[in-house]
Design a protein that fits this description.
This protein is an all-beta fold and 206 residues long. It has one helix and 13 strands; from the N terminus they run E-E-E-E-E-E-E-E-E-E-E-E-H-E.
């Protein structure tokens, strides 16, 4: 993940990612409706193909440093919350911005199998890829996440899988061909372990 501060005087980018984006299964009543992006662009990633970049504009509302959950408000007035990874530093620094521009690259799934332990929403491992990934935009921080969650959908024709992340947002990501070719008896609704890449940047406007 990356924070970038942009304004009249300076712009700095801090790369790295260790937790979730905008984009575990929670009870239906606790699920968050993902906000509608302000814009969607498509980029071509080598060896992956076309991928969408989701751009959101929001204002900082509040943050809980202990849980690292930040409440945002979109231009339409709707509020939602996101989990900010530890590697992104002090979440309260976002309070100094006039507005935020958040770009999310949903990424790709590299593994899908039945979970033998854990509970929905539990993050098993997170790795920040400081060097990014080949062909991915250089200003995106990238993380590799292994999560225990419920498989919500699988679309072989589109080559995607759908699940809910630890932040409560449902995400649909491309799956590598080997993932779809070897599902290891996984069915919709199963508790699974999923490994995926995801990228994000957050620009703060001062």
């Amino acid at each position: 993940m990356a924070f970038a501060h942009s304004g009249v005087s300076r712009r700095a980018v801090i790369a790295g990612l260790a937790a979730a984006s905008l984009a575990g299964i929670l009870p239906a009543s606790a699920q968050q409706a993902r906000p509608v992006p302000d814009s969607v662009t498509t980029i071509d990633i080598p060896n992956v193909g076309p991928m969408q970049v989701l751009t959101y504009k929001a204002q900082f509302v509040s943050a809980d440093p202990a849980t690292r959950r930040v409440v945002l408000q979109g231009a339409w007035g709707k509020r939602w919350s996101v989990l900010v990874p530890p590697m992104m530093g002090d979440v309260m620094s976002l309070a100094n911005s006039r507005s935020l521009v958040i770009r999310v690259l949903p990424g790709t799934a590299t593994y899908l199998g039945k979970a033998t332990q854990g509970r929905p929403g539990e993050v098993f491992a997170e790795v920040a890829l400081n060097a990014g990934l080949p062909g991915w935009p250089q200003d995106f921080g990238v993380r590799e996440v292994t999560i225990t969650t419920i498989l919500a959908n699988l679309d072989r024709s589109a080559g995607t899988i759908t699940f809910e992340g630890a932040d409560g947002f449902v995400r649909t990501v491309k799956a590598e061909p080997k993932v779809l070719a070897d599902l290891q008896g996984v069915e919709l609704g199963d508790l699974c372990q999923i490994k995926y890449f995801e990228g994000i940047t957050i620009n703060t406007v001062n």
